[in-house]
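Field notebook, page 287. I keep forgetting to write these up properly, so this time I am using the form the group agreed on. The chain and the ligand, manganese (II) ion, are recorded exactly as supplied. Prediction of the bound pose follows.
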Amino acid sequence: MQKAKLALKTSPTHRSIVSLSDHTTIGGDDLLIVAGPCSVESAAQMEAVATHLSATVQAFRGGVYKPRTSPYDFQGLGLEGLEILDSLRQRFHTPVITEVMAIGQIEAIAAHADVLQVGSRNMQNFDLLKALGQVDKPIVLKRGLAATIEEWVMAAEYILSHGNPNVILCERGIRSFDAYTRNVLDLGAVVALKQITHLPVLVDPSHAAGKRELVADLARAAIACGADGIMVECHPQPDQSVSDARQALSLEEMVELVQSLRSIAAAVGRSIPFKAGVSPRLSLVEV
Ligand code: PEP
Ligand code: MN
């Protein structure tokens, strides 16, 4: 970490709290739970996600510019998808996160979404990182498919040094030799980053696991080891997802997961906020 300047902690208690919207933050005592489909597919799909989860999670996700391995696969709804996300964030008073793949997409995404995500495949797209340094919105920086912790921190340093202090790191698994899990979730990196940097650390167990039956336990482990939040893929009809169907939770499973995280959060001195003005559907279960 020799050359990092802005990402490093200056004291053991130094931590940055990043605001996604007026009432939603990551990096403080409150955890951030982000949920939604891999891809925005339709207004009806996103409406179902938001209706079911708005009292449970703090932010929605959904890709509209999709980095697909095959050029023949669904590439995302683009601007139409951004308009769906924009309507959702306003009606449900919930911030939305979506991926930016190119400098030319920044202006439209920043106008319609609360947080811009740099995907794994673009972690070292340095021109994109420099441009995001000039954006007045938080950036979720996913770990590259095979990036070292140092390369990842230096990628964050690009955004920070170009003027944007609101960077959230997201561990999403790294490539290894075993294809049983899609990637290997590196929780050691989460612990290390919490010691080295003051930036919030989010964990995406969905792209790490690649299989829905592994996601909830990995999410619980992430919170237990000090992550500041999780980002999980879920869908009203998981098997019908146009992308990443195999790793998608149902909306009911997503609610159950968040419920199970509350006691783990409390054990590590964190909490999952209930939305102001929204009657929490889980409270009846808990008392
Ligand atoms: C995603 O979050 O939809 C995504 C493409 O993730 P990653 O960049 O981690 O593969
Ligand atoms: Mn995905």
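OBSERVATIONS:
- Confidence is low (pLDDT under 50) at residues 279-287.
- Residues 38, 63, 67, 119-121, 142, 172, 207 surround phosphoenolpyruvate (ligand 1) (CB under 6 Å).
FOLLOW-UP: compare against the apo run.
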